[in-house]
Amino acid sequence: MLSMDDSTKFILKRLIRRIPLQMLQKTLSKWTYLREDLDSLDFKQSKYIFTECLLSLFEEKGTTVKRITELEMIYVIENPNQGMWHGFQLSDAEEDAPTVDLIQFKEQFKAHLIELNSHVSIKIKKHTDEAIWIRIAWGSNFTNPNHLKPTYAVHHLQTPYVFVNGLSLKHKPLLFQALVLATRYGSMKDAHLSGRKLTAIRDLLMRQYQQMFPTKHPRPLQEKNPVPTNPKIEKEQAVNTENRMQVACEAFGDGKLPELQKAVYQLETKFRDDSNKTLKSREEPFRGVVEFSSTNLLESLRHAVSSGIAATPVSALLPAITQKRRNRFIITDK
Q1: Per residue in 6-33, pLDDT tens?
Q2: pLDDT average, residue stretch 302-321
Q3: Tell me, what's a Pfam family for it (predicted)?
């Protein structure tokens, strides 16, 4: 019987404590390694007692770090809206890029990354929505792979999009080079789109939500849930209401929107206020940051326009979030 070393115990203990008690049973049931032992576990115990019992079981089974990473991936894949995700886009595809399959990708990615850094631990898993999930624990010539701070990357084969969580600047070029070579692309660039909800930035970048596009002849949208109103007020405001709704949906989309939480505009423009001669006379650009935040920013902006809170036409800077599929912008005079 194998026993776990102290570092393995620590990694396992931290993972179990990270998973909420109400999710533990569902998460553990999807882990084939523990399938035969599930009936012996009492999920009605307190989290502390349950954790101790679980750790004892893993100790008896001689659970390895490799097994623990399997459990972590199950939990992260089922609960992806954690941490900060960043969107990237592959470009300059080679002719055979659309033919790359999962087996080829796995073999090529691992081979290229290990060639760049032999002290890494890589695990790749295909999810039910066809997304390829990659977990990387980075090490160096002097350290073992750090499983406490892994990098996660999500890639949909036959698309140019990659979403990354937990990537340091030091390891960024290594991951990018391995991804570019494994997917048969020429380069990879920042999409300037980030957020704590992977599903939101994925849907926005890959346009997986209902959109509308501007038209020179606005037409009334059919109201999904009509609300009784005063006939006189309705007649007086009908045209304005329809136009505002049309503009709002064209700018931000129709139906359910990706739950983006933030948009940042970095200003690097000439100061143009005549009342402040000192700032206006400066040759260097005026720098500042404007940030919009909400639990669902796109929904908030759409509501502000459709309800008349925000003026129309909408500033081109706001619809740029959906049109350019970004939430970080640098605004210059050019």
Answers
A1: 888 899 989 998 999 889 889 999 999 9
A2: 88
A3: CENP-N
**Could you tell me which residue, 278 or 235, shows the higher pLDDT?**
278
SS (H, E, C) 268-293: EECCCCCCCHHHHCCCCCEEEEEEEE
